[in-house]
Specification:
Strand content: 15-25%
Shape: globular
Radius of gyration: 20 Å
Helix content: 25-40%
Number of helices: 12
Largest sheet: 8 strands, antiparallel
Strand order of the largest sheet: 3-2-1-13-12-11-10-9
Number of strands: 13
Structural class: alpha+beta
Order of helices and strands: HEEEEHHHHHHHEHEEEHHEEEEEH
């Protein structure tokens, strides 16, 4: 663990007992179905930082979990994909009002055109999950295939085809919010097209991830050490360590990372170190409204929640990951549960840690 304090922070924070209180909170989150948890907290001025982990990286071997270990961040990858598309916009490769028909492959266009009018669906709508795309992860055969053959190798095209064959459009473009991994799989393909690289390499180039020092933020299979540090993650009691990373490798998910590198990326994003123009972040976070209230207050690869009475920008990942920024406190936080937490839209450990900081 590491602690950095300044005189501007309340004197209650200067003792190691404060860090121990945080550690105790983490340990109390553990149970038989939740063997491990890691957390990173960073103030925007970098005068306060805390990192901790509790429990095990592997339930079976009981190997201790370390805070520098990596995990599948799943849908948190969408924040990176959305930022990558906005960087392509800054570079002039596309406009957010462009129809996706202008930017996707002929093969994918042929499949999607069976159900969708691609000339009426824009990049902006796809970023906001308002394009009307069915979510292929809800297709009956998606999890059936995973459970029967966990090492099944998915492709971007096979996921899109599954979404078209086993699901219908959820509505007219721009008229409703409906969360769709398929939409972000399509966006991932656009990034690969214009960078002429894999999604991993394309995002690293567009977002400057290596220049930001994010050495353990990699797609699975791209860096031996990042892979070696990966922990076991669980779903309904099942160890998913051996599940093929291709289940969400194409834009809906894909990255491995650590809690502190998630915090570092969010901090770079909100501090103007990712986009060339300050206005681009405003575009990313622009409020959206629909005729009927949306189930999530989602913008572009980011959405808003309330935590302890404060507004926060956040994204979560399927396995139990969440990263958020609280403007009121200028505070960044990331947590990874090794299994999905129970409760609402905010990881319970965040609320407890914030309460401890306020007491």
């Amino acid at each position: 663990m590491r602690f950095y304090f300044s005189l501007s922070i309340c004197f209650l924070l200067v003792s190691n007992s404060f860090g121990q209180d945080f550690q105790t909170i983490l340990e109390k989150e553990l149970n038989e179905n939740l063997p491990g948890i890691s957390v990173c907290i960073q103030s925007a001025d970098e005068e306060f930082s805390w990192t901790g982990a509790a429990g095990f990286a592997d339930h079976e071997s009981n190997s201790p979990l370390r805070s520098d270990q990596t995990f599948r961040i799943a849908s948190v990858t969408k924040t990176y994909v959305a930022a990558g598309i906005l960087r392509l916009m800054e570079k002039g490769y596309l406009s957010l009002e462009d129809p996706i028909s202008k930017h996707i492959s002929s093969e994918q266009s042929e499949i999607l055109s069976e159900d969708y009018d691609l000339d009426q669906i824009t990049i902006r709508q796809t970023l906001r999950h308002s394009a009307g795309f069915f979510d292929h992860t809800n297709a009956p055969d998606f999890f059936k295939t995973i459970l029967e053959k966990p090492d099944h190798q998915w492709t971007r095209t096979s996921q899109i085809r599954l979404g078209v064959e086993q699901g219908d459009p959820v509505g007219a473009p721009g008229k409703q919010f409906s969360y769709s991994d398929m939409g972000y799989v399509i966006l991932g393909g656009i990034i690969e097209k214009y960078t002429n690289k894999s999604l991993d390499a394309g995002l690293k180039e567009l977002l400057g991830l290596e220049e930001l020092g994010l050495d353990r933020t990699d797609f699975e299979g791209e860096d031996a050490l990042t892979d070696q540090l990966r922990i076991h993650q669980y779903f309904q009691g099942m160890d998913t360590f051996g599940w093929s990373p291709t289940i969400d490798y194409y834009g809906g998910g894909g990255f491995l990372s650590t809690t502190c590198e998630l915090v570092d990326f969010f901090q770079a994003l909100f501090q103007g170190k990712v986009f060339e123009n300050a206005e681009t972040l405003n575009i990313m976070l622009e409020p959206v409204s629909y005729p009927e209230k949306a189930s999530m207050n989602y913008q572009m690869g980011m959405y808003q929640v309330e935590i302890n009475g404060m507004k926060a920008y956040t994204h979560t990942g399927f396995w139990g990951t969440q990263v958020l920024f609280i403007p009121e406190k200028n505070l960044f936080m990331a947590a990874n549960y090794s299994s999905v937490w129970r409760g609402g839209a905010v990881a319970p450990v965040f609320e407890k840690l914030l309460k401890e900081m306020a007491d």
